[in-house]
Amino acid sequence: MTKRILVTGSYGQIGQVLVPALMDRYGKENIIATGRKKIPSVFKEKDVHYHRLDVRDLTQMQTLLVEHDIDILIHNASVLSATGEKNPQLAHSINFEGFYNALEATRMLNLEQLFAPSSIAAFGPSTPRENTPNDVITRPTTIYGISKVYIELMGEYYHQKYGLDFRSLRYPGVISPEEPGGGTTDWAIWIFWEALRNKKYTCFLKEDTSLPMMYMPDCIKSTIDLIEADNSKLEHRSFNVTAFSLAPKDLVGPIKEAIPEFEIAYEPDFRQQIAESWPASIDDSVARKEWGWKPDYDIPAMTKDMLEKISKMI
Ligand code: SER
């Protein structure tokens, strides 16, 4: 059945891939991209319907949802972990007010569904770090992580109080050639760009800092699969998803195979502390059981595809 979908924060790393994927699946005329910053060139190439939207403006958000007769709101707008620590006040206004507006607009307009991503950042130093289960202590220490716990709890509250169909994925670091938006996992993108451009990369995390990750096609697949999942089979509203865990040192060998001169140096900065507060690996068996989640890409397949794609972009 045709769905009309509006995506906030769609000019970001994930949105600029998600929007064309949604257009392919639901029809170009049914997808509205919104954002606040620079419009990605791919949107112009693909003739995407886009509108400026600051998610802190509820009236503007509601107007777009009504005018475009939207069924599903995908609320991706967020200030990420590293940018958030530099400007917690901005992160608070965009992440908290923005999500509250998305929730209220969904409730007041009686939309069919609200999808809003959570993150591995919802976990904190007191969470078990290895194979972190779905249902576990979440006491994050970044403003970004706190906003993700807010999203999960408020979404679940509106679900039980108003029957609002809220769904969320705790995305791990998402790897793709697109420019990332100021997160702690961004190294796993820049390493490929710098390897191809300069044959060397200085990493802002220590070599053995492992974090859960996935390749962009799996991120898009998990998002569409959860949006389309049978509501009656969902016992949870927020799900761990992952494909593999990756530390900077794990990519050196695979990159050297393609670029033998590649060299890496490590200069950990404030992002090291953020990374150490997150799990090294997470258990996504609840997502696998409730809606059949399964990733397609492992580290070698992701590495090969990233090097091929970026080579063509340079
Ligand atoms: N990629 C995000 C970040 O590093 C994690 O959700 O902030």
UniProtKB/TrEMBL annotation:
Q: What range(s) does the NAD-dependent epimerase/dehydratase domain occupy?
A: 5-241
> What Pfam families does the record point to?
Epimerase
Q: Per its UniProt record, what InterPro entries does this chain match?
A: Epimerase_deHydtase (IPR001509), NAD(P)-bd_dom_sf (IPR036291), NAD(P)_epim/dehydratase (IPR051225)
One GO molecular-function annotation for this sequence? L-threonine 3-dehydrogenase activity
Q: Name one GO biological process term.
A: L-threonine catabolic process
By sequence similarity, the record places it as follows: Belongs to the NAD(P)-dependent epimerase/dehydratase family.
Indicate what this protein is called per its UniProt record: NAD-dependent epimerase/dehydratase family protein
Q: Which source organism does the UniProt entry give?
A: Candidatus Heimdallarchaeum endolithica
